[in-house]
Specification:
The protein contains five helices and nine strands, in the order βββααβαβαββββα. It is an alpha/beta fold. The chain has one domain: Glutaredoxin. Strands 5-4-3-8-9 form a five-stranded mixed sheet. The chain has a two-stranded antiparallel sheet with strand order 1-2. The longest helix is centred in the first third of the chain and has 12 residues.
Length: 155
């Protein structure tokens, strides 16, 4: 498991317009990685909207939010448009990033063998070090958004 105090694993993923986004693009900035199981699922909708509701405060504190799921760029695009999200949603279709961050969940929706992202929130400082990590007991559990936002803003 990627732990607090460790260097965040590098990655490059596709955004909703199919362009590449890398963690290294945000060197020197604070980043929240918000792993979510799937677009258009009730708890994920609430999670991404909670980060959107706090986007001004986070941006003012020099923090970028990156949503990561195993959904396609097309599904993420429709999801982002529906909720007018002001941060990138990234597609980890080969599941390399969810695996490298120990953020995978097997059996979402009762589908045996299906691997999705679990609900995991990681805050990375400007030097690329993990400073905060929260893992859901199961994908239906939400983080304490105020705690995440306050931590990232104070970092």
């Amino acid at each position: 498991m990627v732990k607090i105090g460790e260097t965040a694993p590098a990655f490059t993923l596709k955004t909703t317009d199919k362009s590449d986004v890398s963690l290294s693009d945000y060197k020197g900035e604070k980043v929240i990685l918000a792993f979510y199981p799937g677009a258009f699922t009730g708890v994920c909708d609430k999670e991404m909207c909670a980060f959107q509701d706090n986007i001004v405060k986070l941006n003012d504190a020099g923090t970028t939010v990156l949503g990561i799921s195993v959904d396609s760029p097309w599904a993420n695009s429709a999801f982002s448009q529906k909720y007018n999200l002001g941060f990138p949603l990234l597609s980890d279709i080969d599941r390399k990033v969810v695996n490298s961050y120990d953020a995978s969940f097997v059996g979402l929706g009762g589908i045996e063998g299906y691997i999705s992202a679990n609900r995991v929130v990681i805050v990375i400082d400007g030097e690329g070090i993990v400073r905060y990590r929260w893992d859901a007991e199961n994908p239906g559990v939400e983080p304490d958004y105020d705690s995440v936002v306050d931590f990232a803003s104070a970092l």
